[in-house]
Amino acid sequence: MGSIVFLHLLMISLLLPWFPKAAVSEVVEGCPSTCGEININYPFGIGESRCAMNESYVIECNNTLGYISQWKPYYSDSEITSISMTTGEITLLRDSSVRCFNYSTRTVIDDRIVSMDLSGTPFFFSTRNKFMVTGCATLAFLTKNSSTIKGSTAICSSVCPETLETVPNDTCNGIGCCETNVAKGLQRFFLDFDSYYNILDIEEKNSTCSRAFLAEEGTFQFNTSILRENDIDFKMNLPVVLDFAVDKCANDTYNKPSASGVGFFCSCPSGFQGNPYIHDCQDIDECSLKEDKKCYYNCYNKRGSFDCSCPRGMEGNPKEEGGCRTIPLSKWLIGLAASLSSGVFLTLSIGSIVFFYKRSKKNKMKRLKLKCFQENYQLLQQKYISFYEDPTERAKMYTLKEIQKATDHFDSSRIIGDGGHGIVYNGLLSDQRVAAIKLSKVKEEVDRDEFINEIALLSRTYHRNVVELLGCCLETEVPLLVYEFISNGTLSDHIHVPDGSAKLCWDDRLRIATEVTSSIVYIHSASSNTIFHRDLKSANILLDEKLSAKLSDFGASKSMTMDQTHITATVQGTVGYLDPEYYQSGKLTEKSDVYSLGVIFLELLTGLKPTSFNDQWPEERNLISHFMILLKANQADQIFDSSMVNEAEKEELDVVARLTGECLHLKGEERPTMKEIESTLGRIRRSKNKQKGKITREERTHLLSFEIRSNGEHSGSISSRKQNSSGSFLPTQSFLR
Questions:
Q1: Chain segment 177-228, per-residue pLDDT in tens
Q2: Annotated binding site for ATP, which residues?
Q3: Does one domain contain both 445 and 467?
Q4: Residues labelled catalytic
Q5: CATH code for the domain of 543
Q6: Three-class HEC string of 267-286
Q7: In the chain, N or C terminus with fewer CB closer than 10 Å?
Q8: Which residues form the Protein kinase domain (predicted)?
Q9: Which domain holds residue 372?
């Protein structure tokens, strides 16, 4: 073996004078630079590891036919057809995997499986390759590890009609030929397939050999003749592109990420030359070039470029021989006068343009603000028609100038919230009140409608647990909303703490639940028009410095008259909080908000998000379904938030859990009303206050429950409800045991 290598290297050294000489900068000194017609530049090298960056870049140069003209480079037993230093690619010729099937015996005659492993090398299969399959009953797959369809990175299937004459040429659409993409970063593969000639009724005259191969995109032209080729030794030898990369490049080079995403390939920038893999790129001195001269007069070389000019007193093109000519004196004087007059005229022109531009821009802004105000005011008036009111009587109108001053022209340092539809800024109004100012992100009609809707609803709403709308600005395409500033974040922020340590105690959670319910009862029934919030969630409940709840974000809300029972509306809301009945029917009712409120109660009890999943839960898919199953088995305490369980009375937790379950019924008619929920929570809180007066456990239980009917018809039922004289809903005593 050693003697063969010695003779091989001796042959290359003897033939070295026959190879064209490359620039010294392209290869290691003393190493050949070409093999046949292919340039072999560093980091590649021929024959010896000293000629290459490392063993992976060593190229073999073989004379396959015994003639000097037939010297060809090889890598990993594959012929190299090109090496591109500018794109970091090397192209090899590779054969296909093939399997031939005997139609008569319905068995495999023979097969040849092709694989290639580049692991541990700087080469990757390029995504410019395609995984291709030909055959009439073939399922082929490309895998990284072994000849098995499990773990495949690409799969392709090819079938044929009854006769090959109807198979189209020049296309691989699954009829006779199939192609698919190659995954990025692939270094090793096995090409294998399953032929199902023994399953499909394929006529004997059709193809009985299947082939699978990698090929550079656009290099394989499919023809039905390949389907009729039943010789297993038939060679295809199609080009396959490999990406190569290095860990780092020399100085003064472009470090371009390789197409595989691993490492770099290097190139010299414009104005530099050399091989960036072997040494730093060198500046080209364009002024000293004898051939391909760049400048014929005053030339000044710069790093990576050069300056070229005519001598003083001359004009023309200095980059052409004889291109500079002496400037006549008369022309010089005329040019000087023209330059001076042009300078004066240019100064006056620029000043006039700037003046009129600023004036035009200011007038344009005025017209735009007036147009926006008129359009938004008209829309707001239409919202107020049913209320027989003037919008200006309910909402203070701020000018855009006032809002810009309050927010320091919407300075990014004043951003306190950034959601899907709007950005909220902290602003200081002219009356020294701190406000939250909401600016729409998207200038679309749907956003304008939501902001107008919120103005119309909130300007008529006064409740201590509903965020106050201080006013609005109609001078923008989508109105700006000005709210009271609530400083303590959202309920979601306080419940879903990243480290799992929720900040809210049980008393605070119970009080917040009561306050939120009270605010919803108000918007449902405290005016001539019923308002459905339609997007109740913990992220839309703000908390002030005393942890008092403030209901916010009425953009999706809908109102209806008192004699209506429901509204048919486009489904809108947040996943996890959306009423299933409303989602299916599009009918929005009071019970839609009840369901969303039940989800918020569930968050308060568990500290978990409604879309939470847990691998330890059985087959239940999310928090709500898991909770309902535990509740039915009287085991809901298994998922209560541990941070507040010890400070809460079990009877209170049980009552609230049952109330939550009632709110989460799939059918709206089985859910309690908002007033029933408010009354129930009020009784729990009153019982807590009386408990502080040292009443007995039996007296407290009586306050939390009601007398069981003698027949016990509601006992133990999750969905049963009973209404007392005040209209409150209370779970039965069995829920408190």
A1: 999 998 888 888 887 776 665 555 555 445 678 899 999 999 999 998 888 8
A2: 438
A3: yes
A4: 535
A5: 1.10.510.10
A6: ECCCCEECCCCCCCCEECCH
A7: N
A8: 410-681
A9: 363-485
